[in-house]
Design a protein that fits this description.
Length: 148
Amino acid sequence: MLAAQREGNRLLAAALRELDLTPAWAETLVILDERSPLTVKELGDLLVCESDHPSRLVDRMARAGLLERTALPSDRRAVHLRLTPSAQVLVAQVRAIEEEMYDFLEQAVPEEAINTVILTLSTLVSGQTAGLALERRKQHQADHTSPK
């Protein structure tokens, strides 16, 4: 399991390198594209790659010109995070790289095996920090794709 995770992360990191992004940065861009604005805590609740210290991640991404921080009028200590225009341009490229990864998996592994792996890994992370983050993200997607 660890070997597969490391290999997948290595492949993703290599694909993102040309964009000067890490997997954690790419994940952050996609989450903020889908849900902006978010506070640092709200972002941390949705991250799988680096949920323990999202403030460091946010600081680095803000210094790189990818995130904007806006103080909340109700609490000046809290800030809303949004993507900068340059980060918004990168989102489409990140999604294309993710699609290439999914295509690779679909070609390399039979569909039944993928479904079994997803079920097995979902069971393993259920109730854990990463599993809870994925559940929150799935719920948000379901809320925004179901007919009203």
